[in-house]
Amino acid sequence: MANELDSPERVSVLFGLTVDLGIALGWENLSSHSGCAEHQIDDQWWFAINPHGEPTECGKGAKVPPYSIYYQFNGWPAGVVTGQGGVIAAGKLANEETLIAAIYAAIAKASGGKPQ
Fold first, then answer.
1. Does residue 3 have a pLDDT over 50?
2. Position 34 in a domain
């Protein structure tokens, strides 16, 4: 029997947290707008969500794959994720752990300090 965490239907943690941040920011119906939804998470991390079925150029000039989130760290490409997984930088400062911590802090800030 397969472990439910290995299921392809499971949404990646990073994708889910970034969506939670968008919700905390009040974003709705992203696919009804042209282009990517973009946000500066903190002084180092930034992202663009492409809610469309075709590659879409974000404000930083990168083509974001369909239904994906593109991240930058200090202006450098740092990864792309979808609901099923992806690739994130694995450096000392730019890595999945520091990105997740930055997103949690941004959610708290957007929520007025209230935990989600």
1. no
2. no
